Here is the input.
Amino acid sequence: MSRKRRGRKQRVLITGIGGNFGRAVARRLHRRYEIIGMDRRPVHHMPKDIDVENVDIRRRRAEDVFRRERIDAVVHLNIMHDPRTRQEEHHAFNIVGTQKIFQLASEHRVPKIIVLSSANVYGPDPTNNQFLKEDAPLMGGQKFDAIRDLIALDMFCNTFFWRHPEIETVILRPVHIVGRVNNAPSRYLRLERPITVMGFDPMIQLIHVEDVVSAVERSLTPGVRGVYNIAGPSPVPLSLLFDKMGKTPRPVPEPMARMMLKAGWSLKVSDWPVPELDHIKYVCMVDDSLARQKLGFAHEYSLDRILDDLSRPPRH
Amino acid sequence: MGLTQPIKRLRERIDETLVDTIDPSIWANIQNMEAGQNEYGFDPFGFEPDFLKYIVPVAERLYRKYFRTEVVDIENIPDSGRVLLVANHTGQIPIDGFLLGCALLFDKKPARMVRSMVEHWVPTIPFVSWFLARAGQVVGTRENCRILLGRDGCILVFPEGIRGINKTYDRAYELERFGLGFMRLALETNTPIVPVGVVGGEEQMPSIWNFESLGKLLGMPAFPITPTWPLLGPLGALPLPVKYRLYFGEPMHFEGAPDDEDRVINAQVDRVKDALRELIDRGLDEREGVFW
Here is the structure.
């Protein structure tokens, strides 16, 4: 209420605004909120009323933004997911960057931080419960190194959540985000003749990028805090997704698929690390009932709309 | 790409032929089954009622012709609502679970789908993982069981587990130690328990001796030696055409705290065990022979 009385829109800082998802969040929020963006990459196609600071979140200039503006919420999206980047760089950027943002938010009394983690932190595993709740152990790093920093980051945010009760921390763990974006699951589903592991057809949950944006928007509501799994329409087998898109997958025996991926990765013709194969073998599904209850989240995009959007080229 | 159309057409033809071989009333029963499936025909665990068309033609012959299964008091299973079926586990290979599933599909009106809990390593086996998931089998975690009961499912439990299935023939129809997990879950979710006495299974593959060390070496839970296996090779591993009898007991209701001490839970489990023993004894008394 007090902010309303001050008669200005709430000010939201979006880190990593230059990415596809950052842009989608900015486009949705800029009418209701005053948006400040931060990214070390060049940022294009942004609504005119958005100020973008071209700065690495780990540098001192990032602090100036906090000092200058009275920020009401931070949407932290500046998390690197590129498996091709050197592990050290990947790790340092994600962990140090996040720590810096949280530290600044705490020093400058930002009342809310929203972090985009992923349901992949739970990891696909044959022993998984069909639906993983928010308190399930984060086992994604067991076989897959590249996800370890996302897990460390998620855990860091959790610790922060308990140590700074004055800040409302929201951690969102969405399932595979697809739509007109350019991430690993979208690229896989867009393949003309996708490879599958012979004899496996796991149930898959997908969510449209715009629905994740809605979840972020809902998380901005004052009073909301905690960890939330975010999922879209009801899960379906992987084969049904291809069937609906009119694609014929190529089932390959697992040892061969592993060999192909390994060779493809070393020769830099594929961007798929071998452990990603588990995602098309085992289930990694989440129970999103908490988000539906507490956040009032409801997905809008049906499976047909998701697949329709997916078959169009990614937006730039 | 040119090949996909003929393959699709061939598959449709096979599907139609398979459906034609199924008794229309059974097929209608399966199609009208409420298994919580979504608009694409799958439940969240990957079960697809439509997939049963690939199983039913063979399953029905095995159930009716090979094992000539007889069911007694099947109406004790409620038509709807959550229920735990607790049965004795026998016979080296888990045909008892399969026949129980068949009984509820073929002999119960309206049909009910039994979901049983499979071992953790099953999802790692190619094709088997896919096949069992489509046929409604679920990885046996407590949380999965809880979700299914929450969705008013009918779940089959063998509280003896591997202990029951691997015993030698001299201990036929003796009940092994029961696990307590099923009782805690029943108390927690307020689920009635229907005991099911399975008679016939012990004779399908009477094990004379369990070659434990070889089993361990091969990574198998046991290595049974039967009069035919391994003497007759793979043929000897086939179950004998024994007659199966399934006795369904009255639903039992339990009350109490699910997190009570083992001693308290054990007393309740013993009541189920006694009911089960009675059903098995009745079955053994009533049968005139192993094969007829």
Observations:
- The longest helix of chain B spans residues 262-286.
- DSSP finds ten helices and nine strands in chain B.
